[in-house]
Amino acid sequence: MTQTSTTTTAAPLAPHPDRLFPADPAARDIARTVYEAVADAPIISPHGHVDAALIADDVPFPDPATLLVTPDHYILRLLHANGVPLDQLGRVSTTPTDGREVWRHLASHWDDFLGTPVRYWFETELHDVFGLRSAPSAENADEQYDHLATLLRSPGFRPRALFDTFGIEVLATTDAPDADLAAHARLAADPTFSGRVLPTFRADAVFDPARSDWRHVVASTGEAAGIDTATHDGLLAALRARRQYFIEHGATATDTGVLDAGSTPLSAAERERIHRAALEGPSGVTAAEATAYRHDMLYRWAEMSVDDGLVMQLHPGVLRNHHQPTLDRFGPDTGHDLPAVGSFTEPLRPLLNDFGTAPGFHLVLFTVDETVFSREIGPLAGFYPAVYAGAPWWFIDTPAAIGRYRAAVTDSAGFTKTSGFIDDTRAYCSIPARHDMARRADAAYLASLVVTHQLTEEDAVRTAHRIVSDIPRATFKL
Amino acid sequence: MTQTSTTTTAAPLAPHPDRLFPADPAARDIARTVYEAVADAPIISPHGHVDAALIADDVPFPDPATLLVTPDHYILRLLHANGVPLDQLGRVSTTPTDGREVWRHLASHWDDFLGTPVRYWFETELHDVFGLRSAPSAENADEQYDHLATLLRSPGFRPRALFDTFGIEVLATTDAPDADLAAHARLAADPTFSGRVLPTFRADAVFDPARSDWRHVVASTGEAAGIDTATHDGLLAALRARRQYFIEHGATATDTGVLDAGSTPLSAAERERIHRAALEGPSGVTAAEATAYRHDMLYRWAEMSVDDGLVMQLHPGVLRNHHQPTLDRFGPDTGHDLPAVGSFTEPLRPLLNDFGTAPGFHLVLFTVDETVFSREIGPLAGFYPAVYAGAPWWFIDTPAAIGRYRAAVTDSAGFTKTSGFIDDTRAYCSIPARHDMARRADAAYLASLVVTHQLTEEDAVRTAHRIVSDIPRATFKL
Amino acid sequence: MTQTSTTTTAAPLAPHPDRLFPADPAARDIARTVYEAVADAPIISPHGHVDAALIADDVPFPDPATLLVTPDHYILRLLHANGVPLDQLGRVSTTPTDGREVWRHLASHWDDFLGTPVRYWFETELHDVFGLRSAPSAENADEQYDHLATLLRSPGFRPRALFDTFGIEVLATTDAPDADLAAHARLAADPTFSGRVLPTFRADAVFDPARSDWRHVVASTGEAAGIDTATHDGLLAALRARRQYFIEHGATATDTGVLDAGSTPLSAAERERIHRAALEGPSGVTAAEATAYRHDMLYRWAEMSVDDGLVMQLHPGVLRNHHQPTLDRFGPDTGHDLPAVGSFTEPLRPLLNDFGTAPGFHLVLFTVDETVFSREIGPLAGFYPAVYAGAPWWFIDTPAAIGRYRAAVTDSAGFTKTSGFIDDTRAYCSIPARHDMARRADAAYLASLVVTHQLTEEDAVRTAHRIVSDIPRATFKL
Fold first, then answer.
1. Across the interface, do A453 and C16 touch by the CB < 8 Å criterion?
2. Which of chain B's residues have a Cβ under 8 Å away from the Cβ of C456?
3. What PANTHER family would the database entry show (chains A, B, C) (predicted)?
4. Mean pLDDT to the nearest integer, A449-463
5. Minimal Cα–Cα distance from A119 to chain B, Å?
6. Would you call B114 and C452 a contact, using CB atoms and an 8 Å cutoff?
7. Cα torsion at A464, A470, A471, A472 (round to 10°)?
8. Which of B79, B132, C46, C202 has its CB 3.0 to 4.6 Å from that of C255, i.e. a possible disulfide?
9. Which CATH architecture best describes the domain A60-157?
10. Judged by CB atoms within 8 Å, which residues 420-439 of C form the interface with A?
11. Residue of B nearest to A13 (CA)
12. Chain centroid offset of residue A223 CA
């Protein structure tokens, strides 16, 4: 196909400068003013899944599909839902997929993304980062793939160059308990790199003896810390040591994903007993014991945060790997983690009773069940000094849901007890588009308060600045 | 009372051409353009409760109240809530009610319907179908009743004439397991009738041994199929045969209403055991056994759909007959079926693990609990190829709720994995008004995406076409 | 600091006449028209926590902090969430706090209230009632405190003068089972006072044998009634007598707050057995027995309402005193009562089966879990003549949530089956500002229906009148 034919058939790709702003002209003008005040502010990304080694090593990205499609479960799941099997999307390591084929699938299903927030921010990304001017289509798929592949071989598209282009000031990664954080150390020691890339300590695997990798992670955590984890006291000591190691490498926060937010502590004798029994093998503990152990660990985790000052992020309520055949064949993170019913007020009561007013303790609560914002997270953040209402995340980090979140949480807790935007992404090149989306959605929300005279325009501009800068800095102790 | 006095006191009935469109002039213009593109498209009604015999026999409707009030639980429940006892609304067969009296109740309570979606679409229906130009009132009740009664005796108001007037292309009915589908057969064989009236196989009664009519329906299903249902294998064979019979009569779908969406299969031995025990009488099985049997049946139902291709509709979560005294006196479907807490992700896991990616399997999920759209139905439809997000239904088939549904579901699943509008109605004459409402509400939603530059106007018009035509055709295999 | 410096640094306090109205000019004009029709209507406050003695005795308020900050848990909790310990907010009676210090905390944290509904109505209150023209700030705190303190010593700021200034027509208080209602009697007998101040019978403490004060309240209720409450029949007789006493003092309603809405009745023998066992001491009954007793009491409470005509208000679903250390140190009502998951349809079934269609029975359902409006409260109010959908309350009595409530409940139940606004406040001076907020929010909602042609402007104005006058009068039998 020739470029001419593509040019004539494909729709233009032209994100509008006023996108996401309210329709009413007066409100739109205010939203534009509020947005413009923060449009170019540096990006603070306190929660994400980019690999630090990617930036430390600064190697070129392999190909457009491996960069833009295969690692992004937002895009992958919509393609799968619309009939593209995962084995045609590069998710089987044993049968390498042609990136060009993957891109053709995306391009020919572009219409299925109509109206979704994924298409919204992917358009911005393709336009702003990669200079595309036509929407993907079956006709232009090969042409656009070649264009992208050429770009990715140029110096301006290496990870560090993009870090600067994107205007990232702080980027937090997510790291395992036994991580050596060597890439973080290299970046910190590198005089040619001025950004902050911070590790985040994520130790879920250690919390849950029912997980198949629990014994392995308990052992490797101990090895990393040089502390014997055969006892529960040993494990706690090893975790404390590892947290200290993370702090020395710049970490300001931990992250924890659990099925539920239960936080009832156990006696020392009881947690030692379950710990030892679990070490003897998967059949060593009952499901109830494993759950009790996990709930106790969440409590200990908060206790450690009170001691060492690491911000505690908590995102319970995700059912992992809903579709067993897909897990068996393609592994985890393949689009079938699904939201569970959210619950915080009851399960967090033991933890909050003991630490909810502890000086300096910050607990950021995330959910994928929107009903919890108005009923639980807002009211908790509106009383407990320690609690912060985390931004909407994953299934609900969308323009519409961000508006619903603001309306629900601001009512109970204002702006100061929120987290600022969280991109939570593996898709490096989507970071600026997604922060831009959040800034626009917040500008739209603030404009709605101004135009109904609940806020002055000056207050709205000031609040927008706080949301992209002061609030994440304060909440995450950056 | 004289006609003159009525004319002066009654409010005009004049549905506005721009109703339901956004207030902002730019957005309203877009909504109008989008709506006009589909306003006159044929009606596809893939889920409803009109009796096929009504159309096959084409007998005149008896009287205005029996047509417009008594069978419509939307209207009946609001009258009851505002103080009109059901025995004055024609719901007791032993004491025949004067239709004129029923209409007077409606007219004198017209004000209690202010602001409700029921009043909204009933106004359109009275205006467009019956030519009323004044709102119902105590003063004009008799006059309007006479006008309606006269119309119903005219040839243009016979069911088949209205079928054409309404522009219905496909109308699906809901039919019992032992239905002979004679009316459907007559319509299909009738060269003078060009519409499609399709049966839908609804076999809930067979699923639940705790129901008082279970043994009766199991037997009648067997008789209809000519297969002995004394064993569970026999029942499954009879159901398969009946499904085939429905397919031969044009069915493309089944429909199932259950209290919860549990779908855990049983072993063959266990389901046979419960089946036989249940056949011995109501006391033969425990509540837990009846529930286990019902969950297994839901699993088998999906299995059969994978085999024979019938689309599986599922609408769990309705507590039937909440008010026992009303049930005892007036029977079921008298306005006190109420929404339960929705749940899909957990209970459907067994079914989806085995059939969620089966080629050609379509599972349309409906709910009356809105919280489920963003948390469960959208995310499920956004991963599983088999799952479609059913339109808001019953308590939430309203302009406001349709907007909330679109915002919640489009975020996770776009438009292609939705069902299109479902009128689910017994009230034949409300069909065009209610599809019109849905087209307007969707136009308003699409306009909101256009005016915030998330969609182009061309894409919005194209999407509106898909919603009223391509999407229901594809989802329901029409 | 001089007044000049304050004038230059503080932001102006100038509530806009169009606040809360929609941005679109056409919709705003309609909202303004609707609002102006009811802006000056008398205030009917059928549910609140002002002390009748305050008005009967008409003593001056002590100081600005004790009047405006310390008793208002809306304000207190946001200050606490943003780092001000409760002991600096006047909540420890043993260490009297300087009101001026409390006010300084509020003023210097004014920015943390940005965008919250609390700031919204507090601004109106400070402006309209107290004539402030600058927003509170650290700089003007002492000046404003002095201004307020001076005002509070003037005759126009005594409780009775404010009652007239506020335009209150009816004010319902909340009173204990053993209340002598002397202040109510004095007010009723006072020819110089023309307002209605009505008691409301709140007997939660009697319902729950698990409460530490249960035995005490059972005894005091008996003493107040002159009936021995050693038996459950005795307690029921005493409660009936007390209800009659309340009726004689003008009460038209009871109020009940319980953890859940369970309403299953017990046999006479069983409730007598639990009653006697509970009287023997806290260890006399199990948690399950206490719950069963409480559920039975809710059922009896409805039965009594059917008999004596008192409107039954029910607001379940609040977890009281979530943070034990705060309860221990500062007592109840200190900002950490939190919303629980709402549930009505299932738990109220026994009560509604027996009384849901009883003539004259009014049951007003309140929730702090918004998800219940569309799923449960709206549908219940849309069938049962007895059920009324209570206005959003406590955590959700905000402009945004009122809009969501109207959209959810009007769909199922229209306007006639709702309660009208409930201020539920201890903060006497916030009453006019909060009713004004509700009138504006309802005007905005009604305008949204008019501008989308679901309602005429005449109907909207008429409905606004009904909402502030006819509807609360009818619902609460005023």
1. yes
2. 11
3. URONATE ISOMERASE
4. 97
5. 9
6. no
7. 110
8. C202
9. Orthogonal Bundle (1.10)
10. none
11. B456
12. 28
**B23 at interface of C, judged by CB pairs closer than 8 A:** yes
Interchain proximity C369–A375, CB inside 8 Å: yes
Domain ranges of chain A: 60-157
B326: Cα separation from own chain's centroid: 23
Average pLDDT for chain C: 95
How far is Cα C337 from Cα A259, in angstroms, rounded to an integer?
A: 25
> pLDDT for A174-212, tens place per residue?
999 999 999 999 999 999 999 999 999 999 999 999 998
C-alpha closest to that of C42 among C435, C446, C418: C435
A443 chain-B contacts, CB cut-off 8 A = none
Q: Closest partner residue to A455 among C114, C340, C370, by Cβ? A: C114
Chain A residues whose beta carbon lies within 8 Å of the beta carbon of residue C20: 452-454
Place of tokens 């130790």: A203
Would you state the pLDDT for residue C98?
87
Query: What average pLDDT does the segment A122-129 reach?
Result: 97
Chain C hits for A373, Cβ within 8 Å: none
Cβ within 8 Å, pair B414-A340: no
- A338–B345: do the CB atoms touch at under 8 Å? yes
d(C-alpha A202, C-alpha A176), whole Å = 6
Q: Which of residues 358-417 of B touch A (CB under 8 A)?
A: 371, 374-376, 378-385, 387, 407-408, 410-417
> pLDDT value at position A8?
47
CATH classification of B15-61+158-475, choosing from 2.170.270.10, 3.40.50.300, 3.30.1300.10, 3.20.20.140?
Answer: 3.20.20.140
Quote the CA–CA distance of A218 and A439 in Å, as a whole number: 41
pLDDT of residue C7: 41
**In Å, what is the CA distance from C236 to each residue of A344, B7, C296?**
38, 56, 11
Q: Is C150 on the interface with B (CB under 8 A)?
A: no
Q: Decide: A79 and A103 in contact? Cβ < 8 Å.
A: no
Residues C65, C70, C71, C73, CA torsion sign:
positive
Please give the pLDDT value at position C4.
39
Quote the CA–CA distance of B46 and B472 in Å, as a whole number. Answer: 7
Q: Measure in Å the smallest separation between the Cα of B102 and chain C Cα atoms.
A: 17
Residues of chain C with Cβ-Cβ distance to A352 below 8 Å are: 322-323
Give residue C1's pLDDT: 31
pLDDT means per 10 residues, chain B with 478 residues, are 45 96 96 98 97 96 92 91 92 73 96 95 97 97 97 96 98 97 97 96 95 95 98 98 98 96 98 96 90 98 98 96 95 92 97 98 98 97 98 94 97 97 94 98 98 96 98 98
ipTM of the complex: 0.96
What would be the CATH architecture of the domain defined by C62-157?
Orthogonal Bundle (1.10)
B358: chain A residues, CB-CB within 8 Å? none
* A62-113 pLDDT tens trace: 999 989 998 888 899 999 999 999 989 877 665 667 899 999 999 999 999 9
Cα C251 to Cα C239: distance, rounded to the nearest angstrom: 14
Q: DSSP 3-state assignment of B171?
A: strand
Whether A399 and A368 have beta carbons less than 8 Å apart is answered as: no
- In total, the C-beta contacts within 8 angstroms joining chain A to chain C are 123
Residues in chain C where the model's pLDDT stays below 70: 1-9, 92-96
Enclosing H/E stretch for A311: strand A311-314
Residues in chain B within 8 Å Cβ distance of C380: 338
Q: What is the pLDDT of residue B6?
A: 39
Q: What residue has token string 């409260």?
A: C377
Strand-pairing partners, residue C202, are: C255
| Closest partner CB to C81 (pick from A353, A384, A454) | A384
Model confidence pLDDT, tens digit, residues C90-107: 776 656 678 999 999 999
Among residues 262-321 of chain B, which lie with CB inside 8 Å of chain C?
A: 319
